[in-house]
Each structure stands twice: as C-alpha cells, then as structure tokens.
C-alpha cells in the first residue's frame, strides 16, 4: 500500500510541519494486490479496478528490479514482519520511481498479508529524520521535555526530566505538577501553561524558580518554553514544554548583577556610617537574609587603625529581610567584643573570610548572650559568612552575612561574592574615614578661626549666620566679626576668600587675624583695607617662589564698618564687596550708595570710606555675595529678596536671620554665605560729657574740676581721685606735646571712659623713668591705674583714651600721691 502525500488545507508543501497521508496497498501471501488506496492511484496512476486481484510483480515491478523487490519481501519476513527501505516501482505510464516503503506483516486466518505504506523517497527520509529527532528528544536530549494533556496531567516526559526529578519516565503518566514541584511554584507554572492552552501563543525562555518535592532544600531555576498541541482539525491535544535547568547560569548572572549594583550603590557619599548601610542594603536579600557591619571604634571616628586589628567593635549597620531578625541583632551604636573563637574574631585575626555552611555556636559565643543566641536558634539561622573589611593592609571591621529564610546554605561562590562586596565597601569606608579625618581637622581649623560668638556690646545687638555651600564639607573662606573698639565703638566686618576647603579657611584665618590687629590700631576703614590689601600682596608673593599648590588669595573681598553709638554715625569701606543693607525703624530698606574699591590683592589702588547716620534701632546687614547670587538669575533679584526679608527690623534678630535664610534662592550659586546683622543703639545724653579746653597751663586744673563734678553727678565719687589723676596726666601731656584746643570727654557705661583729643599726630610713648628722672612717669601711672588705654587717630589729630571698670577703683598711694600733690 502506498499513500501519496496530500497537504492539509492551509499549509504549503514547504512547511516542514505539514501533515501528509501516504499511499497504501495490501498484498496477500502470494503477492496479489487485495487493497488499493486512492492515494496509491494518485501516486502510480493505476486505478483499483486495474490492480485488484493481480500480482504486484506483473505491473509494479520492473524485471530489472525484481531481485531488489524480492530482497525487500525476504527482509520483511526475516525482520519479523517489518521492513523499511527504498523500493523501485513502475508507474502506469512506464516511468520508474523510487518509493520509500514500510512493509508490515499481518496475520490473517487464510494466511499472512503484507501492509505496505509508500511515499516518495525524499519524503521517507524526512520521516526518518523526524522520527530520529523525536526519538532523540525523548531519549538523548539534555533539555527536559514534558507533554501534558489538556488537564495538565503528564502524558510523557523524556529522560532529562526523569533524571531531574529522580523519578522513572514510566512513572510520570497521570501525575500532575503538584506531585513533582512544591507550592507555590506549582501554581505559577500551571498558570503559565493554562495561558498557553487558552491563547495558543507559545512562550520562550520563561525563567521560573522552584523546589522539587524530593529536594526541598535546594532552589532550582529553570527556563521554560511551551507551545500548544493541535490535531489537523484544530482540536487541542495538550501542551508541550521544554525545561532547562539554568540554576548555575542564573546565579552567575545574579552575582554579576549584584556586583554591578554594588559598584553603583556603595560609596555614594564620604560618610562611614552611610557606606556601611549601603553595603548591608545591597547584600539583602539577593545574597543573605541579614547583614551586619561592625567597625573598629577608631574607624567610626575617622581615626587610623593599627595592624593588630583588635579592639572594640561598634555596630555601624544592620539590615534584614524581616523585623524579627532586626530585633535579634544588636542595634546600631552598640559596642561589643566577639569571643576569640567566634567566626568574626577569627576572620579579623587571620585576615581571611570564614564560611560556616552549617553554623555552629561555640560555648564562649553562646555565653556572650545566651538568651539572644537561643532566639537565633529558634529563628532557624543555619549558615554564616564573616568577611574582614580591609584596606591598605589594615583591618577596618567585619561584615557578617546570615541565612535562615533561604534553606540552602552558603557555598563557595557566595563566599567569593561576599569578598568582592566587602572589598569594594572597605575601600569606600577607608576613603570616607580618611575624608572624615581631614574634614574634622578642617572644621576644627575653621572653628578656631571663626568667632565662637559675637560679644555683648552697648553699641549694637548682633546676630549672625554662616551657610557653607556644601553642608557636608562645611569649610569655606567666608568670615564675619564684631570687634569692640575704644569709645564704645564697634567694628563690623564681613569677608570672603574665593574657594573652599582648608586652604580657603587658612587664608581666611590669616586675614581675620590681620583685621583684628588693624582694628586695635583704631585706623579708619579705608586705611584698614589698604593695609589688608598689602598683606594679601605679600601672601601671594610667598607662594610664587615655592610654587606651592595652594591657591592665590587674589579675589578676596571685605567690608569693614565702624559704628559709634555716641554720634550714631557709621563709616565703612569695601573692597570688591556688596554694599551693606540698612533697615530703618520705619521699615524702609536702603543700600547706601558708596564707592567700591577693588578686591584685595590687586595692589596700589585706593579705597574710600563712606559715612551715614543711623537712627537708633536701625538694622545694619553685612553679607557675602553667596547670599544673593544665584545661577541663571539676575543679581538684583537676590538683592530684592534680601531687602524683602529685612522689611520688619523690629523683629528679633534671630528671626530676621531666619527670614533672610529662607529667602535664599533655591538655585543659589555654589558659594559659601555669611550674614551679620546688627541693631544699633545710641547712648543717652546723660551718659556722655564733653568739654573743650584751652591749650594753656590751667587746662589740667580745669579738667580735674570738671571731671570731679561730673563723677559726683553720676555717683562715682569712689573713683574720683583716680580719675582726676588720669585726666590731669592726659591733659598735661596734650598741652605740652600737642596743639590747638583740647577736648575732654567722659563716657559712662559698664566702664568709665576718659578721652582727651588734640590736633597733634604725635604718638605718646610709655617708658620706664629712671630714679633720677624728674618726669616721664605720667603714662606709666595711667597704665597702672586703668584697665586699658590707647591712642586713635582722626583726620584732625589724635585721641588718647582710657577705660576704668566701675566695679572697684584701683588704689593710688606713695609715688602717685606725691606726684599729684606736687603738680597741684
């Protein structure tokens, strides 16, 4: 019997999965044809009427091929009634064709018959190829193959699946996935297969994680592809899936992804604690169920460790997949020492990681905290990895990885991954530690250079803000100061050194010290800036011959202002600095139009002072440009924000500072900002007494009488004797060595201030007189009788001033009384 290939509707002849029907014939024991199919007629051209009852040898076999045909028949008998091969056959038109024939013997009551199925030889080769592929898929293919019926029962599996599940292939038919996999993996796989059955859409390489019934402690990852099976009529026969165990490949890919994630997530900041937390968060849950990071205490403080790697450990980070585990761990900040036989202590002392696939708690470790160890056992913690955190050959701490939710223990590949994560984190922690060390040193330097607070002063009430551009760095070159001067005056200073970091802070400190020195000389603001400009020139010249990497100071700016509460006048000068803002008591805010000098360090350029009178209660705001400058914004907009924040000067100064800070533009430039606000005060008229004296010999006596009367009026008779001596000496010196009219002024506050002014610029000099000298002891006595004294210069001459505390008056006797009586 030969069946002609007939393609099913809708499929072309080139479709390798097309279904064909073959030609067939039935021969009796004498070789007579007793059955002939329509496909045989179509293939060979003979009708059934022409062939039935005739021996096949008469018309189907060419005499030249008779031996081959007889060999096939003989082979069929020798092979227990089954033969397959290629047989030459003659068509009705005489053409000779080779047919692939399958001959099978059939037992009949009247004798044996042969059922012959035939097709063109090339089609038979395809049949054999398909049969070999199918046989290979079920017998030799390393990829698992599962055939399910529409109810998802197993119909057939190949040997790879049988080995995978450790179940014989013949035991699978009739089983379900639940007999093979554990929940909830069964539900996920069945849902996936039902979707394929319902839609007919095949799926490719879908990865599923699961555990087998016979090995629940080992998680497997398989790659599944599935397609729906249908017959030629479209009836659904079931679903076939291929299953490949990709556990090793999946874990390798997962480890690589974890390493890549660690490189991106660990070390995002230069903060030791944050870096430790990032390490713990990266490793959970992909590698461990819980991770703790413990660092040596010096490391947490930014200090260097020793090679001995011993000492107390501080719990720096802990992260877990569940809250109950976090409750079992020591909290962050807890200081501990592991027993010498604990894995953590061993890995630190030996500087080598420790893997305990099956965790065993030693007696000494258990004695550390028996209750906690027992709770750990109850939780089911079964595996541990301890890896030392090392950088530059020094041990920084230890990271511990624990498992209890995942049943599989840690293995060597996990240890390698843990070492990689620990190595990356250790470098980042060491960098953060070294940065912390340098940062603390820089902050200590800046804190030592900036004023810890502004002094209480009768002339002004002061508040301030310092806003670093980088809150984590906190070190910059901006500074502010309030320096008390003679005569109850005060100097208000704000400066800005270009740049950030320790160099800018160090330069700022040198400039601030210079400003203090110049302020104590009582120089006018423009002269202070001129001297400061010379200093910056010298600092720049110091770096040129040494070629040090320190940045140049050119670009530093400064605003120096002096306020006098007696006259309520404020004089100021600025070197490349923004002008001060003045908020008057009525709420108006103005920016005084004043000449601006060049930034410090340009050299040989003049500075000019400006002066304005301030009403009592006015708010004077001095600031650096970082407060008003913003990216992509006009400078006027920043000034407008500042003026808006100062419109209510009656508020507390801290509230004004907060308003200015809140008004900062969100995209302000990456520059430090300093703010100094001062509310002015004025001395009451009864606190000041001023007299003009003629430059004549009677000036000293007149000055003593005026001073005594004023002190009596103020109720300060207890210091009258001392004050008269001081006034007498100062007026006498002014008469002898000065010129023009003399001015005597007494100011009463927490101190009694005595000032004598003349038109001479000659500076008095304190010297120690010899025993034979008849004079030269006046300033020596003044220095002994006062708390402070000094000289300040004005455009019309100079002023010599003294300060006496009002708590107790110094006693004068001996030589002082003799000199006083002699002059009188």
The residue ranges in which pLDDT falls below 50 over 5 or more consecutive positions are: 1-20, 809-824
Mean pLDDT: 82
Number of strands: 32
Give the count of helical stretches.
23
Calculate the terminal CA-CA distance, rounded to whole Å: 160 Å
Share of helical residues = 25-40%
Give the DSSP E fraction (strand runs of 2 or more residues).
25-35%
Which structural category fits the helices and strands?
A: alpha+beta
What is the 3D form? Answer: elongated
The radius of gyration computed from the alpha-carbon positions, rounded to a whole number of angstroms, is: 52 Å
* Main sheet overview: 6 strands, antiparallel
Q: How is this structure best described in words?
A:
This protein has 824 residues and is α+β, with helices and mostly antiparallel strands. The chain has 23 helices and 32 strands. The strands form six sheets. Strands 1, 2, 3, 4, 5 and 6 form a six-stranded antiparallel beta sheet that branches. A six-stranded antiparallel beta sheet has the order 14-13-12-17-16-15, with helices on both faces. Helix 8 (247-265) runs antiparallel to helix 9 (272-283) and helix 9 runs antiparallel to helix 15 (412-449). The radius of gyration is 52 Å and the shape is elongated. The termini are far apart. The model is unreliable at 1-20 and 809-824 (pLDDT under 50).
């Amino acid at each position: 019997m030969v069946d002609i290939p007939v393609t099913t509707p809708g499929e072309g002849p080139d479709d390798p999965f097309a279904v064909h029907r073959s030609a067939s014939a039935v021969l009796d024991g004498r070789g007579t044809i007793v059955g002939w199919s329509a496909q045989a007629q179509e293939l060979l051209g003979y009708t059934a009427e022409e062939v039935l009852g005739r021996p096949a040898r008469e018309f189907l076999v060419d005499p030249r091929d008779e031996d081959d045909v007889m060999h096939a028949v003989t082979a069929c008998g020798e092979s227990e009634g089954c033969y397959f091969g290629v047989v030459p056959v003659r068509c009705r038109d005489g053409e000779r064709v080779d047919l692939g024939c399958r001959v099978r013997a059939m037992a009949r009551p009247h004798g044996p018959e042969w059922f012959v199925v035939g097709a063109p030889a090339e089609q038979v080769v395809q049949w054999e190829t398909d049969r070999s592929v199918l046989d290979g898929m079920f017998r030799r293919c390393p990829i698992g193959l599962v055939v399910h019926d529409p109810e998802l029962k197993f119909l057939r599996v190949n040997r790879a699946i049988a080995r995978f599940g450790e179940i014989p292939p013949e035991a699978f038919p009739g089983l379900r996935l639940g007999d093979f996999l554990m929940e909830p993996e069964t539900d996920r796989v069945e849902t996936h297969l039902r979707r394929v059955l319902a839609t007919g859409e095949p799926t490719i390489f879908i990865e599923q994680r699961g555990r087998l019934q016979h090995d629940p402690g080992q998680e497997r990852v398989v790659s599944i592809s599935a397609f729906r099976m249908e017959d030629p009529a479209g009836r659904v026969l079931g679903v076939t899936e291929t299953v490949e165990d990709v556990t090793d490949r999946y874990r390798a890919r997962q480890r690589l992804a974890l390493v890549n994630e660690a490189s991106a997530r660990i070390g995002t900041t230069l903060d030791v604690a944050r870096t430790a937390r990032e390490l713990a968060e990266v490793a959970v849950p992909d590698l461990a169920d819980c991770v703790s990071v413990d660092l040596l205490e010096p490391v947490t403080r930014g200090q260097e460790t020793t090679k001995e790697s011993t000492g107390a450990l501080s719990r720096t980070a802990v992260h877990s997949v569940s809250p109950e585990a976090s409750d079992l761990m020591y909290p962050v900040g807890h200081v501990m020492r592991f027993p010498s036989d604990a894995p953590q202590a061993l890995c630190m002392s030996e500087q080598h990681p420790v893997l305990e696939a099956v965790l065993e708690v030693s007696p000494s470790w258990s004695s550390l905290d028996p209750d906690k160890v027992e709770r750990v056992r109850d939780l089911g913690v079964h595996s541990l990895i301890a890896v030392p955190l090392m950088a530059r050959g020094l041990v920084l701490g230890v990271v511990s990885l624990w498992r209890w939710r995942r049943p599989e223990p840690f293995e060597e590949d996990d240890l390698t991954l843990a070492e990689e994560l620990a190595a990356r984190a250790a470098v980042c922690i060491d960098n953060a530690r070294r940065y912390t060390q340098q940062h603390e040193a820089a902050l200590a330097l800046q804190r030592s250079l900036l004023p810890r607070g502004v002094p209480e002063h009768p002339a002004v009430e002061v508040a301030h803000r310092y806003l670093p551009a980088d809150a984590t760095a906190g070190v910059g070159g901006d500074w502010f100061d309030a320096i008390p001067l003679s005569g109850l005056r005060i100097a208000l200073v704000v400066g800005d050194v270009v740049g950030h970091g320790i160099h800018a802070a160090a330069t700022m400190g040198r400039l601030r010290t210079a400003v203090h020195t110049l302020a104590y000389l009582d120089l006018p603001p423009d002269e202070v800036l001129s001297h400061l400009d010379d200093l910056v020139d010298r600092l720049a010249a110091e770096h040129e011959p040494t070629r040090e990497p320190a940045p140049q100071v050119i670009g530093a700016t400064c605003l120096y202002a002096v306020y006098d509460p007696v006259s309520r006048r404020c004089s100021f000068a600025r070197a490349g600095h923004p002008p001060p803002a003045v908020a008057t008591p009525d709420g108006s805010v103005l920016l005084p139009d004043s000449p601006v000098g060049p930034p410090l360090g340009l050299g040989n350029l003049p500075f000019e002072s400006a002066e304005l009178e301030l009403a009592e209660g006015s708010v004077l705001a001095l600031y650096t440009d970082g407060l008003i400058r913003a990216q992509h914004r006009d400078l006027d907009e920043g000034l407008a924000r500042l003026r808006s924040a100062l419109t209510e000067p009656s508020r507390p100064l801290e509230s004004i500072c907060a308003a200015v800070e809140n008004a900062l533009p969100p995209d302000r430039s990456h520059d430090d900002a300093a703010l100094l606000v001062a509310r002015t005060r004025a001395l009451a008229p009864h606190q000041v007494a001023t007299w003009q004296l003629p430059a004549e010999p009677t000036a000293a006596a007149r000055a003593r009488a005026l001073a005594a009367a004023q002190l009596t009026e103020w109720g300060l008779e207890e210091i009258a004797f001392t004050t008269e001596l001081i006034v007498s000496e100062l007026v006498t010196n002014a008469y002898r060595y000065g010129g023009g009219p003399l001015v005597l002024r007494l100011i009463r506050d927490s101190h009694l201030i005595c000032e004598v002014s003349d038109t001479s610029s000659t500076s008095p000099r304190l010297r120690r007189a010899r025993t034979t000298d008849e004079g030269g002891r006046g300033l020596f006595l003044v220095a002994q009788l006062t708390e402070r004294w000094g000289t300040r210069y004005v455009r019309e001459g100079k002023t010599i001033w003294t300060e006496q505390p009002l708590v107790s008056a110094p006693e004068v006797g001996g030589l002082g009384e003799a000199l006083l009586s002699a002059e009188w």
